[in-house]
């Protein structure tokens, strides 16, 4: 079981391993001091999975707050005068494709769900 506390403008990424285990990450829209930026989250998850067989990947949270590009370039990396990509509605497929690509998983293995703010518990 994984508990993701206080998910607000964030997304959670949970990898369900074929052996029954879980690998998870709480991806914050803006970097939390001492934690990873949004563009560092999926490489860290991929490293934690470390070649184990994956059954499914679940992305949940504030889908409408996220542009899929935030997984490859964090908002904090944009300099003065550079336009940060703004989400255009809830891009379920774009997020699923971005996660699948970085985790090297088939697109069909990734589901995306918009869920209300609060704690998320994955069993």
Low-confidence runs (pLDDT<50, min 5 residues)?
A: none
What is the CA-atom radius of gyration, in angstroms?
Answer: 14 Å
Strand content: 25-35%
Structural class: alpha+beta
Give the structure's gist in a few sentences.
The protein contains 2 helices and 6 strands. With 123 residues, the chain is of the alpha+beta class.
What does this protein look like?
The protein is built from two helices and six strands. By secondary structure, it is of the alpha+beta class. Helix 2 links the parallel strand 4 and strand 5 (110-114). The chain starts with a strand and ends with a strand.
Please name the defining characteristics of this protein:
two-stranded antiparallel sheet; 4-stranded mixed sheet; alpha+beta; 123 residues
Topology, please?
Layout: E1 2-7, E2 11-17, E3 22-27, H1 38-49, E4 54-61, H2 92-103, E5 110-114, E6 118-122
Parallel strand pairs: 4-5
Antiparallel strand pairs: 1-6, 2-3, 2-4
């Amino acid at each position: 079981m994984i508990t993701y506390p206080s998910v607000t403008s964030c997304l959670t990424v949970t990898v369900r391993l074929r052996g029954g285990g879980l690998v998870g990450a709480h991806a914050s829209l803006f970097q939390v001091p001492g934690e990873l930026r949004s563009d560092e989250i999926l490489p860290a998850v991929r490293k934690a999975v470390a070649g184990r067989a994956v059954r499914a990947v679940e992305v949940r949270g504030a889908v409408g707050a996220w542009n899929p590009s935030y997984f490859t370039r964090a908002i904090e990396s944009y300099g003065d005068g550079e336009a940060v990509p703004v989400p255009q509605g809830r891009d379920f497929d774009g997020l699923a494709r971005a996660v699948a690509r970085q985790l090297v998983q088939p697109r069909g293995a990734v589901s995306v769900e918009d869920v209300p703010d609060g704690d998320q518990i994955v069993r």
